[in-house]
Amino acid sequence: MSRRRHPDQLDLLGWEPSEPVRAFEAHTVRAASLAASISKAVSQSLKQCALSREKVAARMSEYLDEAVSKPMLDAYASEARGEHIINVVRFIALIEATGDRRLLEFIASQFDWAVIERRYLPAIELAERLEKRAEMDREIEANRRQLKRGGVL
């Protein structure tokens, strides 16, 4: 007879860590130029968005209080339309409309930075303090050894 788990019982092996950094797979946004990579990122975001391009354009228009059309989004997403690179204001509106944090991560990754949720900041600060404390402990221990060798301790 197989044992049944209670529905509230967590599965230890089923646990997956959170995803503090969300990014596009590198091969999906790789291109010959930065402008082409941005177009690919815009394209990936729009393809994977639950909203239609028309709805994304409408949300962007509302956010910016200016007209953004589906053909504009199509142009931003097209590598062939290099003269129609999305500007930063519309890029921000696109992030807001799609909720796709990978777009912001794409830009940050150009500088070897990462975009994380603010709730992770205390954990990062704690890790930095623990690293500093470990460094200080090593320095203190080195000083202690030196003092013992000198007969002071």
From TrEMBL:
Superkingdom as given in the UniProt entry: Bacteria
Protein name stated in the entry: DNA transposition protein
Taxonomic source organism: Ancylobacter defluvii
